[in-house]
């Protein structure tokens, strides 16, 4: 299981706090992803701040490439690499968030025969990411948060993080969101469309 949390303003201590909180909340082993390391079934790997987490040839790769949707790490980079490497064995889950993060990567997972899961936008704190994925990714399954996590192989305890681990929306992202998407219904007006 690979986790990308958009937290471009979080200090390094927040990364350690997130990993520790996940460790206390699940029976699964939780690690910060490390470049050029293999990974094991039944473990959780969290992308570190400032690097995209990619999967390639059975290894995790950390890349300091261009930001995607103003962020690094970005979920699209992980989804694209997972789809290319593992095809129909991938399950991509898009949860609460702003902008269109996750949409193009989830589309790639579906294109390669994988499973696309989207959190129910009605229960998401920030519904823009789930709404965008549902708009552009065919055959995406819409599930409540706790069922999405269970379907992805994560125990329900995994998602019980203390509220202190909620990171604020970065000011750059908030400003861009307010400019481009004043309301969730404005998503249809964006000029970005994926070829199906």
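^ structure tokens above, recovered residues below v
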């Amino acid at each position: 299981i690979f986790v990308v949390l958009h937290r471009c303003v979080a200090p390094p201590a927040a990364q350690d706090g997130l990993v520790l909180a996940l460790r206390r909340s699940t029976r699964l082993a939780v690690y910060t992803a490390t470049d050029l390391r293999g990974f094991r079934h039944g473990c959780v790997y969290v992308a570190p701040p400032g690097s995209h987490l990619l999967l390639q040839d059975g290894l995790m790769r950390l890349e300091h490439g261009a930001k995607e949707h103003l962020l690094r790490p970005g979920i699209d980079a992980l989804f694209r690499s997972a789809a290319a490497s593992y095809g129909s064995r991938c399950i991509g889950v898009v949860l609460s968030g702003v902008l269109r993060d996750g949409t193009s990567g989830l589309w790639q997972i579906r294109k390669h025969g994988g499973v696309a899961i989207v959190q129910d936008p009605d229960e998401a704190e920030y519904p823009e990411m789930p709404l965008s994925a549902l708009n552009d990714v065919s055959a995406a399954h819409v599930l409540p948060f706790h069922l999405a996590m269970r379907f992805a192989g994560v125990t329900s305890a995994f998602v019980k993080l203390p509220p202190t681990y909620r990171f604020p929306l970065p000011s750059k992202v908030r400003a861009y969101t307010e400019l481009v998407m004043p309301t969730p219904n404005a998503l249809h007006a964006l000029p970005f469309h994926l070829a199906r």
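The longest strand covers residues 52-56.
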